[in-house]
Amino acid sequence: MINVSKLKEGIVIDHIRAGHGYKIFQQLGLDRLDDVVVLMRNVDSEKMGKKDLIKIESNLDLNLEVLGLIDPHVTINYVKNGERVNKVSLTPPQTVTGILTCKNPRCITNHERITDVKFHLVDAHTNQYACEYCDVRTRL
Ligand code: CTP
Ligand code: ZN
Fold first, then answer.
1. Which residue of 7, 12, 73 sits with most ligand 1 atoms within 8 Å of its CB, as the best mutation to test the pocket?
2. Could you read off the pLDDT of 33-57 as tens digits, one per residue?
3. Do β-strands 10-17 and 137-138 pair in parallel, antiparallel, or remain unpaired?
4. Which ligand 1 atom minimizes the distance to the CA of 55?
5. Strand runs (DSSP E) across the chain, as ranges?
6. What is the pTM of this model?
7. Distance (Å) of CA 109 to CA 106, 119, 139
8. What is the C-alpha to C-alpha distance for residues 135 and 3, in angstroms, rounded to an integer?
9. pLDDT band for position 72 (50/70/90)?
């Protein structure tokens, strides 16, 4: 098992469903960060069997909406002076604007230049969202 040390200062995104860590890494733009970032994949977990985990040695402002959209079950731990000071659980956002794109090839949003398309949560269990223009369901 590879050993990644505890953080002194920063953020740990924990309990990421195995396989989703890379997607979160990309969506949060962590590749553009100059601080230390570690993506651990397939870590053993008592609760989940396997999980992914991201450690960020920086106090950036995370886009919780994007996170809740990709994986609403993650835990976010904020670390200060080597101690976890705050733990946040996510819920999937009720509406999402400008992140999802409609997968319906006939949808107007795929033919005209419409920005900021809004999607509404229709199934929290499967994390499905409906397009405000055509109502077709989609997920990230
Ligand atoms: N962690 C870290 N650096 C710290 C403190 C915690 O990297 N200074 C990491 C731990 O390695 C762990 C996560 O943050 O992956 C959460 O740690 P902890 O606060 O110990 O909570 P747990 O009881 O492990 O997790 P939970 O209660 O959320 O299941
Ligand atoms: Zn649509």
1. 12
2. 999 999 999 999 999 999 999 999 9
3. unpaired
4. 7
5. 10-17, 37-45, 49-56, 75-80, 83-89, 95-97, 118-123, 128-131, 137-138
6. 0.83
7. 8, 12, 16
8. 46
9. confident
Q: Which of 4, 9, 13, 14 to mutate to test the pocket of ligand 1 (most atoms within 8 A of CB)?
A: 14
Show the domains of the chain with their CATH numbers.
Answer: 10-89 (3.30.70.140), 95-138 (2.30.30.20)
Among the bound ligands, name the one nearest to the CA of residue 55: 1
DSSP state of 58: S
**Protein residue with least CA distance to atom 28, ligand 1:** 75
Phi-psi bin for 134: left (phi > 0), alpha (psi -120 to 50), beta? alpha
Contact 44, 2 (CB under 8 A): no
Residues 7-31 pLDDT 10s? 999 999 999 999 999 999 998 999 9
